[in-house]
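User: Predict structure, ligand PMT.
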Amino acid sequence: MDAANGLEAPQQILETEVKAFFDSAPPLQNCNEINEKLKEFIERNSFPSGNGKARRVVCVTSGGTTAPLEQRCVRYIDNFSSGHRGATSTEYFLKAGYAVIYLYRRGSFQPFCRSLPDDPLLECFEPTNESDIQVREAHSEAVKRAIVEHHAAVADGLLLKLPFRTIFEYLQMLQMIAISMRSLGPCAMFYLAAAVSDYYVPWKDMVEHKIQSGSPLLDVQLVQVPKMLSILRKKWAPQAFCVSFKLETDTNILLNKADAALEKYDMHAVVANELLTRKEEVVVVTNADKITARRDKSQSGADVEDPLIKLISEKHSTFIEDSNRSFK
Ligand code: PMT
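Assistant: Predicted complex:
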């Protein structure tokens, strides 16, 4: 323990790594514009909602980050995530009365658009004559729902969407969001469903131009991405409710890994999911219990995110009550 600032050595090492990561990252484009949008969004949602209680705001992260191999990027290492979990969860958070900052991978699933076909523009619409276009009957319900519900959320100032592609963009934006949400105290939540790169090439070590394919061996040094979860908890948003995810393909290790993440990163909850069954059931792991949320198979179109978000929002309510009590 360093008596001067009360930090333990591993925490200091992590902070040095985090600083090195941000110092070497290429500057975020549209940084000022993003800050303005965040400021306006948080201000708008800092007033009590219809029920007289403070509005809760959740940052949902969604989709996979990329780790570029070249500065003028042609090739990159990607992380598996379609964005379905984040997009679906966003819909249920909005239904539960939250305002949502949706930090998502460009091109991944979007809230309210899950039931649209892959190429909605070409598949949902058809020309009636040279100047008119109509929605195909088969897709009319899905298109109407997507447009009406999405527009309502955006018009009411309850949904802010911010896209990322690279690990650099993701972590810089997560930090900006966390800092801007500080004023919300315990009403803020982080729901970290994005699949975040574990390794990356630091910007300064990256070749500028496209790697040439002449050599039979590609020799690239990857450096570990510092886990930002504990920095988020301790530094960026110490009063917020934090939920992270644990994805494994081996169910035998899943719950132990979730337990370890809960403790190591001091999360309030870890959602444990297995790759093949992730749309059927998840386990919400907290210090108090492990609760399984299952999709209601008897209902067509039911989502596992329905019981999951109910459970998470109940846990968030208890957290807010406890935090308010300890401030009295
Ligand atoms: O998008 P879908 O196709 O619907 O799939 C959803 C999902 C399976 C991707 C999602 O439910 C999920 O589990 N997301 C987290 C996947 C993941 O990256 O797990 P992990 O064990 O590598 O990371 C655990 C946590 O640490 C995550 O919350 C991640 O945001 C965070 N992390 C990871 C690496 C890193 N360098 N820094 C981090 O903060």
